Amino acid sequence: VQTCALPISTFRPDLSWVILAQGQPVGFIANADDEQAPEQLGYIIQVGVHPASRQQGLAAALIARSLRAWRAEGKEAVILHVNRNNPGAIRLYHKLGFTIVARRGAFRKR
Q1: Are 11 and 45 in contact (CB under 8 A)?
Q2: In angstroms, rounded to a whole number, what is the distance separating the alpha carbons of residues 25 and 42?
Q3: pLDDT in tens, 78-105
Q4: Where does the chain have alpha helices with state H?
């Protein structure tokens, strides 16, 4: 079971999409309002692409669609979190204009 610090009531199914290829899901993006931020921000909860469908621009297309939707709602900024052990995603986010604004600590239990 995974939990998320973001209240479920802020999830935006109307701004979340799935890409299908031959009737099978190959990519998705989930978005939410970030009501805890000092200003109203859009929040990309998660982006995922099936390993066999990577390097085809699907994640970039999903993010671009999300950014257009957030802009249409008047959001001036969108945030997301990424694991520092995911260099491919980090490169993509930089290419799409995202910048690092904070780093969170890592915790491990032995």
Answers
A1: yes
A2: 24
A3: 999 898 889 999 999 999 999 988 877 6
A4: 58-72, 87-95
Listed residue (38, 45, 37, 36) closest to 13, CA to CA:
45
Q: What DSSP string runs through 51-72? A: GGGTTSSHHHHHHHHHHHHHHH
Integer Cα distance of 7 and 99 in angstroms: 25
In this structure, the chain runs to a length of 110
| Residue environment code for 67-101, b if the CB has 16+ CB neighbours within 10 A, otherwise e | bebbeeeebeebebebeeeeeebeebbeeeebeee
* pTM exceeding 0.85: no
- Find out whether 64 and 75 touch, Cβ atoms under 8 Å: no
